[in-house]
Amino acid sequence: MEPHLRNIMETATKKLVPLNPDSEDISHMMEMDSCFWAEQNGIKLIGGTIFSLDGCEYMGDIMRDEARHIAVMKGAQARITTLFMLRAIHALINGRYPQGSIYYFPNKIAVENFSKTRFGPLIADNLCIRRHLKNTNSVNIKRVGRSFLRLLGATATIDIQGKKDSSSVRSEPADEVILDERDLFDDAMADMIPDRLLNSLLKLMVELGTPTIPDFGIHKVFGESDQKYRMIKCRACNGYTELASEFPKSVKYERETTHEKYKPHFACIKCGKEIFVSDGEYVAKYPDRYDPKYPKEGISGYHVSHFITPNCELSMVMAKYEAALTDSSKMGLFYNSMLGFPYIPLEDRLRQQDVFNCCGDDVMRASSVVGTAMGADIMKTNRIVIAEKKPKDGAKVIYMARVSGFDALYNLVIKFNVKSAVICLRPYEESFRKFQARCHDRKVKVFGSVYPASDSRKGFKKTDEQSGVYTVNRTEMMDKSHSWVKSGKLELPRKCEEVIVFAREVCNTAKVLETNDLTGDRIYKYRPIGDKQEHYRHALNYLMLALPNLHDYQIGATCVGESKSNYDPLKWNL
Ligand SMILES: [Zn+2]
After folding, report:
1. What is the pLDDT of residues 96-134, one digit of tens each?
2. Class of domain 352-571
3. Strand 141-144 relative to strand 251-255: parallel, antiparallel, unpaired?
4. Which residues, chain by chain, have CB under 5 Å from ion ligand 1?
5. Ligand 1 geometric centre to CA of 249 (Å)
6. What is the pTM of this model?
7. Which of 259, 271, 448, 549 could disulfide-link 425, Cβ–Cβ 3.0 to 4.6 Å?
8. Which CATH superfamily is domain 65-339 in?
């Protein structure tokens, strides 16, 4: 922005001098700056609020960001939806997005709700917007100036061979796409949305939402950004405090003079004096990841906690916090909507450290004389885990690797003296069946494993001895391997590159409570997170299923290499 225009803007924001709306500079400003335009027009928002940056300075910073890719991880009532809606309308009025803008919600119901309660009134209440709109048949598609603003639900409409397709995320191009409530999007849909921008010179993308669980949805995108947090400067000591990360230390109580009540206020974490949200500024945690001089590169990310929003009532927030401390089931919601952080209870996701805690001192082996069990997840690159059986549900993993093809798998069966294996039945069932038959000839027991589409079936495991298939309840299986890692009964090889990959993939899943949109039933499910590679976790699951099929005679019969441990007089049946 040119310096003299910046001066005008600051004058206008501080309301120092009344501005002449006919001046050339002002009309130029109105055209260039969506924030200035919204303030000068006194745009009416829901509940009779007038758009203003007064007390919402963070909104100005986000609204004026020219980054090609923006991520906003936010708490409740942050007004970010309004902000990007106004930014899009302003750009369309001024002809900046010739191919239009698409505002995506997770589903059709969310679109209808937004359209009725927010979008409709925004148009009806504001002439400065209404006069640029042309009539269209659809309430969710508006012609603004010469191009379109579309509100769409990113829901899959067709499901062909497990591949989701949706006309709403394909068809027409756009210059800007906005994904609101990012964590509720179907992943397959979210991945298709950027295709809309392929023909655009601008390729603007905004992802925003309240986080739910770590390494997922908006938290994952924000994690890849420069991560700007609102830092509040202390008037007393000039130190900075980030209210959400420092919570609850960033809140102090003071006795009110007139009532015998304690009233909370924000406090500097350095000196303890009261601090004020209006003294905040955005500071990037990783400034090297995004440079405003190169808006097309990297992701510009913002964190907006409920604390810095205009309607934050601190005593109400503290009451919610107290309630969550006594009822831990409320803590997740408190983190997500108040602090704007993701949250998962310790028992619902394994940490990589939990996996490393299983590591012993032994390096991986190259072969085995003792009979072993194998679990394998078959992908383009298979994940294989081979272990010896130990007493009381224990096991010692002696080998893990990523290899390709069933021949390589068969070689490992020979090399490691595998007596029992469980392998995912699909997607390569035909090759699996050949492998199963080949192993059968060598008296190696091989089962294929499938997770049924729905976990409603009672019981953990159904065995079909005839065709050699286990049908396994996926959620229960994941619970079991989770507890196994935590139990101390699983020994892994010494920490090395492959074990690090193993740890990452074992932890790339988290248990979440999901609601079925149709039936309203709430059930626990494991959902892939992080880079969504969770193959080693399934290989570990299959190993758990394979171990019980390993008989003691298979392990003991060839125990020649372990003469020392066999020399145990207590076992001589004396
Ligand atoms: Zn201070």
Report:
1. 999 999 999 998 899 999 999 999 899 999 999 999 988
2. alpha beta
3. unpaired
4. 234, 236-237, 239, 268, 270-271
5. 13
6. 0.81
7. 448
8. P-loop containing nucleotide triphosphate hydrolases (3.40.50.300)
